[in-house]
Amino acid sequence: MKWLFLFALEAAGQAVTCNHTTLAEAADAYIAAQTTGQLAPLLAVTAANWTYQENNQAVSIATSRSASGIIVAKALKIDHRRTNFDLTACATYTELVSATDPANPYVIGTQIHHATDLSEPQKVVLVDSIVTTTGAWLFDAKKTLQHVLQENWTVILPERARDTRVVLQAAADAYLDMWSNATASEAVPWGTPCTRLEGSAYTGHDRPDDSCKAGIPSNHKQAPNTRRRYVIDESMGSVSVFCVWEHMMNASDSHELRLERGKLRYVHTMTSCGSKACKL
């Protein structure tokens, strides 16, 4: 009995070791669903009680027949896709751009979170998307596609040059705190060159002194950016944060930052105000 009790305690404390291959397969299943507009590939990798969330709102999905009206049930021509992997939190972040179909322009960020316990190990438990289209903040899918294709998001080598999870999340939190904290900008690891892609607005001019400081908040008494969810990939120097941008109509917001050797290099943002046009 004592052995069984100790075994039960040990099993209860076990956590799943996250597998890159499994994460990649789930991200590919999501892409297959988004490309075809059919949920079947995604449902094959989800847990029994998984959650689908779109622009900070949970949507009940039982089968592919009950998925009408959500973006993943709409077939899109994907012109750009990049996926980052968080092997600690067992999650991925995927950036998508659909720009060459004039009837369906979209820029989408999707975090996929996997089970980390033994009940349904590594099954998808949350698909969380920030979906932007016409009317979203500074939206122009063609311009966004042009800019993302000219950037260099390669794996950071050597490995010792990578920043830690703590450093990456602290940088993102400091950046997102600038709206509500007058000293937060002092904690942002500003670097040059750095370019910010805010919707489709781009701060880069292909100059060594390009800076992401342009246009940062000067009013620090705004409502905070809340409900933050993170996916962190140290190998890419990337931290993805989904949140509520309270100051802008409680918008659904995605910020992704890339650090290279401790300094900010890229910032990508997507912001949706639902059925209304975003405005400050």
TrEMBL record:
Residue ranges of the region described as Disordered: 206-226
Superkingdom, natural source: Eukaryota
Pfam families named in the record: DUF8021
Domain (DUF8021) ranges: 162-271
Residues making up the signal peptide according to the UniProt record: 1-15
UniProt keyword annotations, A-Z: Signal
Protein name in the entry: DUF8021 domain-containing protein
Species: Sporothrix brasiliensis 5110
